[in-house]
Write a structure and sequence with these properties.
The protein is an alpha+beta fold and 515 residues long. Helix content is 47%, strand content 15%. The protein has helices spanning 6-10, 41-44, 52-58, 61-71, 112-139, 145-154, 156-159, 166-172, 189-198, 205-210, 215-218, 220-225, 228-240, 350-356, 358-386, 398-426, 430-436, 438-463, 475-483, 486-489, 494-507, and strands spanning 3-4, 13-14, 17-22, 25-28, 72-76, 245-248, 264-267, 273-283, 291-298, 301-308, 313-317, 329-339, 343-344, 388-389, 392-393. Strand 3 and strand 4 (25-28) form a beta hairpin. Helix 5 (112-139) runs parallel beside helix 9 and helix 15 runs parallel beside helix 18.
């Protein structure tokens, strides 16, 4: 590509002939002047000049990445770039932007396969997911079937439900491969944790939840409690991405108090099917799901049924602080016929099915919330060092450094607690996890969501008005401050997590221990 001196660039300094320099790239924006969202004036102001500082004061780097191929005509002669554009799959070098194990730190948990796994997923998201995510977060469109199938073939749907026999089943059936050529027998909960983390690296919280937010809680009841025939039919469809699933428990009348649900399932006279009537509310991914793992009230008590979309099933979009792309739904069942073979577990045994995956669900929420907060910390570091206030970088202000210090210290505390829990999961049976980890996972969730509250508050103060703007420099901060409370409510509220954690501890309190 041709090289230009700064003097040559300076000659192109009008609206009809407008060149600028960003870092060491020369851009010809003559045809873009009238299309510039900020108007022509701001471009004419920097015509023929080095506009690096002005560009990064107003635009995210992703804007440059998007438009550089179209408008770049050369580089500045005898100069090297000072700003590095990220390469596909590359991890960040901003302090605390990645967990310490992936920033040169030593780890007792992570192996080479974990690093390879993360790089592969990061590259996939950057190349295949982010372009659609950025557009859909704004437009509210659900993820395309094509993207779901791509993610299925890449093995991501299998990864986010964790280690299990479905890994080999998928590989043997040639449904998918695992990212980074990880073998099924070496896949552990740290690999799964990485898969969840990478889904929160691009700052589109609603779209991120549209990608398997329902699957990670809706599919486990099927492969843990469904019949062999049901598993053989449903699991491959969902893991391949050709079908979508969600969990339908919450109702307008009840949330955590599952015993009060009113959705009924009455066994037919010939005992071949159930007739389901009722309403479910706030169902993640419900608007575009094909299957609903549903809590119902049967003659024997609370039961779980897999209900397939069809006659009598209707879903309506609920407007929440999420974008509509997450597919949060009001689901109505009106005289829906469900085969008895779709019963998950035993009739009246619904509580066991529901509780079976609770620890895993909360652990997943911890993982995604921590990673989302880490992205916010990275954004704050970048903004505080490039934003100039009173002639100095924002980070030169002691109060800003104090806010960053508070954010980092609590973030890293939560990360290390979460990794300890993940290690326990890797080395415990399910029965041991249920006994020893229910309380710690709940308390960790409380710590994580409290940390997110503080991170959101400080990030908003650092970004100012940009933290309230859905586009531009504060896009990630605005999305986080609008949606972080999901983690404090879904999977059990903070109050319930605190109570559960302490009650679990009291059970093991030795009676012989006195002051």
């Amino acid at each position: 590509m041709k090289e230009y001196t700064r003097e040559e660039v300076a000659q192109h300094n009008s609206a009809k002939d407008l060149w600028i320099i960003v870092d060491n790239d020369v851009l010809n924006l003559t045809t873009f002047v009238d299309m510039h969202p900020g108007g022509a004036y701001s471009l004419v102001e920097v015509a023929g000049k080095d506009a690096t500082e002005q560009f990064y004061g107003l635009h995210r780097q992703e804007v440059l990445v998007k438009y550089l191929p179209k408008f770049k005509i050369g580089t500045v002669a005898n100069e090297k770039p000072k700003i590095t554009l990220p390469k596909s799959g590359q991890l960040s070098t901003v302090p605390y932007a990645e967990s310490s194990s992936f920033m040169g730190g030593k780890s007792a948990y992570y192996k080479e396969s974990h690093a390879r796994f993360r790089t592969a997923i990061r590259r996939f998201y950057q190349e295949q997911v982010i372009p659609e995510a950025l557009a859909s977060e704004e437009s509210g469109k659900n993820p395309t079937t094509e993207l779901y199938i791509k993610m299925g073939k890449f093995g991501l749907w299998a990864c986010i439900v964790g280690p299990g026999p479905w890994m080999k089943m998928g590989l043997e059936g040639r449904l998918f491969t695992l990212p980074g050529d990880v073998k099924p027998e070496e896949f552990d909960y740290f690999h799964e944790q990485i898969a969840h983390e990478e889904n929160r690296t691009f700052g589109c919280p609603s779209f991120a939840d549209s990608l398997g937010g329902g699957l990670v809680i809706g599919l486990p009841p099927v492969f843990n409690f469904g019949t062999d025939a049901l598993r053989a039919r449903i699991v491959p469809e969902v893991l391949s991405g050709s079908k979508r699933i969600c969990l339908a428990i919450t109702e307008p009348y009840t949330g955590s108090d599952v015993a009060r649900i009113k959705c009924t399932a009455v066994l037919s006279e010939d005992k071949s099917h159930y007739i389901v009537n009722g309403i479910k509310k706030w169902i993640t991914n419900g608007t575009f799901s094909d299957y609903f793992s549903t809590a119902v009230l049967t003659e024997s008590g609370i039961s779980m049924l897999l209900i397939e979309r069809g006659d009598g099933v209707e879903t309506t979009q609920i407007k929440t602080s999420y974008s509509s792309c997450a597919g949060t739904a009001l689901v109505t069942f009106e005289n829906v016929k469900v085969p008895v073979g779709n019963l998950l577990g035993k009739e009246g045994g619904g509580f066991q099915v529901i509780m079976f995956n609770f620890n895993h669900e909360r652990w997943c929420i911890n993982t995604t919330q921590i990673r989302a907060a880490r992205l916010v910390v990275e954004e704050c570091f970048k903004w505080a060092t490039q934003r100039s206030v009173f002639g100095k970088p924002l980070v030169a202000q002691p109060v800003i450094r104090n806010k960053l210090g508070m954010m980092i210290s609590q973030l890293e505390a939560c990360q290390n607690w979460q990794e300890n829990l993940t290690y326990q999961m890797c080395n415990m049976t399910y029965k041991e996890q249920a006994k020893h980890l229910a309380g710690p996972i709940a308390l960790c969730k409380l710590a994580v969501t409290r940390m997110c509250t503080m991170v959101s508050d400080n990030a908003c103060q650092i970004f100012g008005g940009r933290a309230l703007t859905k586009t531009g420099m504060g896009r990630v901060i605005e999305g986080f401050q609008r949606t972080f409370k999901y983690g404090a409510i879904l999977g059990g509220s903070e109050e319930i997590m605190a109570d559960l954690g302490v009650r679990q501890a009291i059970r093991s309190m030795p009676q012989s221990s006195k002051l």
